[in-house]
Here is the input.
Amino acid sequence: MEVSGKNISCCLKINVVMEKMKSLGRLTCRKIWKVGKEDKRRVIHSLKVGISLSLASLLYLMEPLFKGIGENAIWAVMTVVVVLEFTTGATLYKGLNRGLGTLLAGLLAFLIERIAKESGHIFHAAFIGTTVFLVGAVTTYMRFFSHIKKNYDYGVVIFLLTFNLITVSSYRVDSVLKIAHERFYTIAIGCGICLLMSLFVFPIWSGDDLHLSTVAKFEGLAKSIEACINEYFSDNINQQQEKARENSMEMEDPIYKGYKAVLDSKSSDETFALYASWEPRYLKSCSWQQYVKLGTVLRHFGYTLVALHGCLQTEIETPLSVRVLFKDPCNRLAREVTKVLKELGNSIKNRRQYCPEIQSNHVHEALQDLIDALKSQPRLFLGTNSNTNILLALATLATRQKSGKDYVVSLPNVNNDDPARVVLGHNLVLKENDKKSLKPTLSKIGITSLEFLEALPFAAFASLLVEIVARLDLVIEQVVELGRVAHFKEYSHDDDVVININCDNNPRVETEFSSSHATAD
Here is the structure.
């Protein structure tokens, strides 16, 4: 019985292991499919690398080619592995840097070798050591220059490596210059294969990636603003705040997803711009630097949106009755800002200059409506005189607390029956003459039952909306400048911009162009 029990347990363990292996296999297949589905160019690039390596290995595998080149043919394979990148610009950057660095290092090493041989055998070693020191120090110092570090750092490293290999080896090996000569040819062959595959076989342009990523930023910001406004003015405040906290914990908040790509885009923008500057398709245009400037302005816009998102998770809640008073003007302002963002992205996508007058007037009209609505409720934000005195007293109290001393702050004209009550932990002290004094401590200050204080969180929300409009003007300026620098086609009133609003308050932009204004290549 014991033996049969052990057999059953072993079988169960084997079944569990087999199930885990099957699930692991399914997960692996799904992951592979997902990576390829996200960007089909990844599959194309993988095939291009495989073909390039096969072509380079023929130099080593085919007998006639191997006899002509020798064992240095393996350097062609190594060059393909190192140089061939995902985009054409990255391949050109590394390929031309590697080729130029190798060529200059070989020429300088050949010159040093000639001079060293003329100097005699005794002085040969000292001359090589001194030369290696000087070239190494000067070359490394040059890498600190911003222009060289940005554009030619990889070439400088290859130059330094190749120069030292040839120069130091030439002291012991007589045929080192011949080896370097053959190695240069194989490296040139490898770079040539990479450049041909990148330029002529399904090329992937860094400039296009930078262009499309910029368009996606506008779409993400527009979606974030829509979702933020919808959540803030939802009917159930508690449910909305609980949902916001859960989403923030799970990092699946649609608002966060919208602006995350914008905030994390600095490095990718600069990299795409650098590689685009090497691509022949964009040599005549210097617009890639303007894309970087636009990305910077969009990140500043995104920072304001982060603060607006934070208003959804505040501990102090603005009553729904207060929010309803300003729901329509806030919705209208957010809707107009969203329209402008989507139209900006659409104009960049179609390489068409943006006309600021199209939507800006509507935005400023919506902004004025919000300002008028705020002015129509002065009691909510200004309060009565007694409330103002309380605020001033609390501000004085908070300032004095920073000094670490104990002060007593009196709040005059506050009766016991006054609904405006201020609570500072347990430090509420009654005094004569119908006054209350507050002895400040470092405990948490709680403020309750003040009508105008309940509206302060909304005041912060409204001020951030106004700040977004101000940031939007800066974004528009950069987009207009981008259209000028990149030579986008002129805006024409024949271009009909139609913005449809679905019943779920999610705008959808549809742009129709006349046949005479086709999308630029």
